[in-house]
Amino acid sequence: MIKLAITGYPLAHSLSPAIHRAALADVGLEGDYVLLEAPPEELEEKVNHLKENGFRGFNVTIPHKVAVMNYLDDIDPFAQQVGAVNTVVISPDRKLSGYNTDVYGFTQAIPEDIRTNLQGRKAAVIGSGGAARAVIAGLTDIGVSEITIHARSVEKAQELADNCHKSGICSPNVAELAENADLSDVAIVVNTTPVGMQGKFEGVSPLAVQSLASLPPNALVYDIVYKPAETKLLELAKKRGLAVLNGLDMLVLQGAKGFELWTGKPAPVDVMKQALLAVLPA
Fold this sequence. Notes:
The protein is of the alpha/beta class. The protein folds into two domains: about 1-100 and about 250-280, Rossmann fold (3-Layer(aba) Sandwich), CATH 3.40.50; about 105-245, 3-Layer(aba) Sandwich (Rossmann fold). About 40% of the residues lie in helices and about 20% in strands. The protein contains eleven helices and twelve strands. The strands form two sheets. A six-stranded mixed beta sheet has the order 2-1-3-5-6-4, sandwiched between helices. Strands 9-8-7-10-11-12 form a six-stranded parallel beta sheet, with helices on both faces. It is globular. The protein starts with a strand and ends with a helix.
């Protein structure tokens, strides 16, 4: 019996149980994947619960991808460089090892022809949390020439930029998230914040219409939120005729990598995506 989980706060939006339960069934493994909601002040308690109760591993989502690193015994060098963990493997002797599969999911979800065209181009990242770290690492891996972090807190964005520089990822620029940001030379915009997610932020775009209007016609607008499938940001971008991408494939692909780490078996990616689409509201 393989016990898996996801921890974060809030978790009402999570569709991860559906894709991992489908994957377990498809490869013939008995097990379950459950939600374990953890407000920030309860994170250590929840991690200890998972460690002491026979879990094989767990995913970590907003807002714990950085904080969880304090409770791990070992961190994969790549995750250490990114500065964020989204997948934890629990060994038989209850040691916790952290990995980052978000970067793989983020980059591989972008169609190959678009990835190629992004090389040498400029990128804008909205947000400065743990998810932004992975996205910046992914954009660097793709080969963009310049990244600017747009955030409401310039101080927090600068801290992220400094960390990226120190860890050898890249040296992003920093800008306040303004209503009239000039994005006329940007080839890809990525939202890494929960703004637009189902719940209290739903129906809100993290990027103002004026800023979207400045994007060139061949730009890609990528929102890593996956519920709803079309956020307000993507709705506005589509009205402008821009290419858009949500977080569905990123979720499936990062989950597939995690599944392989937990089980040692190839992940049934197509089965996982179909399971996700089956439970996603139209």
